[in-house]
């Protein structure tokens, strides 16, 4: 059994963190040529000095770590770890990285418990809950691809479910970006080296599409679940791509004001009952703005492995409605793939000065 880190001091935690960073740097040094890497300077909160190259931020380390893995926005085919292939259209719309024109957004009415533990010097990854695990996935993804990132702590409504904070938050930030990509805390980017530009091209999100969401699972044996009053499958608001267009603000305003029962009588029924803002969007908003809404297959941007209904296996975006702890496991697998790949390179290429052959199993007489 591993010892608990709960009683460790902040200095001990700092030492552990520095140790992991050194492991990362060791992998990078082995990966890069020439032997020394000219690390750029940064002004993030987590820094350390490497030789005389200046401070190196964790954001820069993460970008270097994933640099060999990143997929170009126009790469025609992507093959996942199971050999499943996905392709782009012949003429993908986005040709290069959009960088800070994309915002990865976390929107929470809860604080991160891991932050409180860190401030007490008690941070322990093994004890981090799914909320922090999901947020770390989103934040790391933004760092890898150079996107902007914001964690918005929103205050609760007095009269409706906390999930109703989404439309106003999207509206308050979309004018500063081309795209806002929002995920619930129990949703995750499955392939962190696969950029949003590639996904936008793959899904053929056009300039007119103000809102993009994935469909929920639909079971023909129980069609009353996850369907609106017209028996049409709901879209899930746990993953949303908001694109700035001439209709975006109008759609978000209509969605935000839906429970006021002015434009949409009886929309207030979804203030608190499931599925809150998702039901309101599915019952009302999408019918008035059909042309500007893109609906994605559940199999590609909803659910997780093991879900058989509608094959909602989370091919690109996973949403763990149940088994929420698996969000954290997903993040671990992504990070370990990136960390261990350069370490494996040392052994495979045998050029790091650590690999030796012992041709004869005898003691050298000169020893």
From TrEMBL:
GO terms for molecular function: glycosyltransferase activity. It holds the Pfam family Glyco_transf_34. InterPro entries: Glyco_trans_34 (IPR008630), Nucleotide-diphossugar_trans (IPR029044). It comes from the Eukaryota. GO terms for biological process: protein N-linked glycosylation. GO terms for cellular component: Golgi membrane. Keywords: Glycosyltransferase, Membrane, Transferase, Transmembrane, Transmembrane helix. The chain crosses the membrane at residues 12-31. The keyword Transmembrane helix applies. Belongs to the glycosyltransferase 34 family. This is Nucleotide-diphospho-sugar transferase domain-containing protein. The lineage of its organism: Eukaryota, Fungi, Dikarya, Ascomycota, Pezizomycotina.
């Amino acid at each position: 059994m591993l010892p608990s880190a709960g009683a460790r001091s902040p200095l001990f935690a700092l030492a552990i963190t520095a140790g992991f960073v050194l492991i990362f740097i060791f992998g990078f040094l082995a990966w890069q040529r020439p032997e020394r890497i000219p690390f750029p300077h940064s002004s993030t909160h987590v820094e350390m000095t490497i030789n005389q190259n200046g401070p190196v931020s964790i954001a820069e380390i993460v970008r270097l770590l994933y640099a060999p893995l990143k997929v170009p926005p126009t790469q025609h085919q992507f093959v996942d770890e199971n050999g499943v292939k996905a392709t782009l259209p012949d003429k993908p719309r986005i040709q290069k990285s959009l960088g800070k024109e994309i915002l990865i957004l976390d929107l929470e009415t809860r604080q991160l418990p891991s932050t409180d533990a860190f401030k007490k010097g008690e941070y322990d990854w093994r004890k981090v809950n799914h909320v922090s695990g999901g947020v770390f996935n989103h934040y790391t993804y933004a760092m890898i691809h150079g996107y902007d990132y914001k964690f918005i702590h929103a205050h609760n409504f007095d009269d409706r479910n906390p999930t109703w904070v989404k439309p106003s938050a999207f509206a308050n930030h979309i004018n500063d970006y081309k795209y806002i990509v929002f995920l619930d805390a129990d949703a995750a980017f499955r392939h962190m080296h696969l950029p949003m530009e590639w996904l936008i091209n793959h899904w053929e999100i056009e300039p007119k599409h103000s809102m993009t969401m994935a469909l929920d699972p639909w079971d023909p044996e129980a069609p009353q679940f996850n369907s609106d009053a017209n028996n049409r499958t709901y879209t899930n608001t746990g993953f949303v791509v908001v694109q700035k267009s001439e209709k975006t603000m109008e759609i978000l305003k209509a969605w935000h004001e839906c429970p006021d029962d002015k434009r949409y009588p009886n929309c207030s029924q979804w203030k608190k009952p499931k599925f809150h803002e998702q039901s309101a969007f599915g019952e009302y908003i999408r019918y008035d703005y059909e042309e500007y809404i893109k609906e994605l297959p559940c199999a590609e941007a909803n659910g997780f492995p093991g879900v058989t209904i509608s094959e909602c296996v989370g091919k690109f975006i996973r949403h763990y409605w149940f088994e929420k702890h698996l969000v954290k496991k997903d993040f671990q697998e992504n990070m370990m793939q990136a960390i261990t790949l350069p370490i494996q390179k040392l052994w495979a290429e045998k050029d790091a000065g650590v690999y030796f052959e012992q041709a004869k199993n005898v003691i050298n007489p000169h020893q």
